[in-house]
Amino acid sequence: MVTQNWFYDGMLYVYALSLLFYFSDFVDRNRQAKQLGTGLLIFVWVLQTGFIIHRIISHLDMTFLSLFEYLLLFSWLLITVSLVMSRFFRMELIVFFVNVIGFAVITINLFGIGSGASLERWELAHEMLVLHVILMILAYTAFTLSAIFSGMYMFLFRRLKGKQWTKQMQRMPSLDVADRFMFRVALVGTPLLMLSLAVAVASILVESRYSLLIDPKVLTSFVALAIYIWNVLRHRWFDGAGWKFARLNLISYGVLLLNVFMNQASNFHSWS
Description:
Elements: H1 6-28, H2 31-59, H3 67-88, H4 92-110, H5 121-161, H6 175-207, H7 216-238, H8 242-260
Helix pairs in contact: 1-2, 1-4, 1-6, 2-3, 3-4, 4-6, 5-6, 5-8, 6-7, 6-8, 7-8
């Protein structure tokens, strides 16, 4: 578990899972994904509502709310607003990014800020970095698979365009299959990378080491995220050409690989 409280751990994981489904619906207009994401988000809302009511009843004085409770109330309001917007308006993009902010807030909160946790601040930041690394590894795994399918797509596309058919190509997936898988796996990796960076920024804020926000590794990660978001949105909404998606997908993966080799020039993973 990430923290010492299973209740908060479960809330954090369910919240992250709901955002994965919301991002899938936002890009791919997947009704089933939206229903799952909404259901999980409602579950998080119920957990937060129950906890807030419990705190109000136990305190009976709203003037003595701790920072922990203020942040929890803030994240609860963000979730409430996003659920209302999702129900009555078609604002999937706004709903998703509102909840990314809510996830960052609840991440800071769930690691004991203002809650009386016994862990020191540097220990809290370290635990948050552990979650960041786990999410980043999952994102790298997804992007690696997407890059493999992208490479296959580019190889097949050029061979077929040049009418250079070989027997080895019979053992490879079709262009349609490669296109579908490289897109859908990238669709999983993109929100994972986004959540990982949200946790990383939260850990920086917890430790008040704001200079790390301009660390080369952090900046490169955000550049890679921006490219992936643009590529996924463009492929689905603007230009569905598979070879363009595959090419930019490989460029995005190259930026991520560059990010891996920047560990020696970065202070981000060593400061905690």
